[in-house]
Specification:
alpha/beta, Maf protein, 30% helix
């Protein structure tokens, strides 16, 4: 029987406890011990990329460089078609004042636009780097299609979840049971792809 202490330690380049829990659950069968970067005093990397992929690579590389361990990073956000893909990579810092202010700003930007023209999607890119100089990082991407509501609905989730409407479920992401969200979301899709890729490795 394998000793749990023998598990491969992988650093998650994030301080988000929710992301750590979700990914830890997905990767558990691979004998991976996922640890947050704060455990190793890794400073937050400056997200200077112009795409989700670039930012995820920057974060994973910084964590791998600082720790000497393999690293996983996530970059994600919401794209609104009417806004030419904004907020996109700037989703978390759209308003500069947190989740609630981000939602208020997005509603202001779309206030004249009917709901049927508010198509949008969540994007998630997960990157795995074996080491800081890894020339072929694993890159896994998942997206989740929906529409932007005209007012928030629901208490679950975080970020733009209260504004993200799912026609198939006739509710917002924030009204979904967490178990359903963790099965169908953009991050869930990217996580499953990462699991399959790591299993092959």
């Amino acid at each position: 029987m394998r000793n749990p202490d023998d598990n491969q330690i992988v650093v998650l380049a994030s301080g988000n406890a929710g992301k750590l829990r979700e990914l830890d659950k997905v990767l558990a069968p691979l004998d991976v011990s996922l640890q947050p970067q704060a455990q190793f005093n890794v400073p937050d990397a400056e997200e200077t990329g112009l795409s989700f992929v670039e930012n995820a690579i920057i974060k994973a590389r910084a964590a791998a460089q600082h720790t000497g361990l393999p690293a996983i990073a996530d970059d994600s956000g919401i794209e609104v078609d009417h806004l030419n893909g904004a907020p996109g990579i700037y989703s978390a810092r759209y308003s500069g004042a947190g989740d609630e202010a981000n939602n208020v700003l997005l509603l202001q930007e779309l206030r004249e636009i009917p709901e049927e023209q508010r198509s949008a999607r969540f994007q998630c890119v997960l990157v795995y780097m074996r080491h800081a100089l890894d020339p072929v990082p694993l890159i896994c991407q998942g997206s989740w299609e929906g529409f932007i509501l005209s007012e928030p609905r629901g208490e679950n989730g975080f970020g733009y979840d209260p504004l993200f409407y799912l026609p198939d479920y006739q509710c917002s992401s924030a009204q979904l049971a967490p178990g359903i969200k963790n099965r169908i979301s953009h991050r869930a899709k990217a996580s499953r792809l990462l699991f399959d890729a790591l299993r092959q490795h």
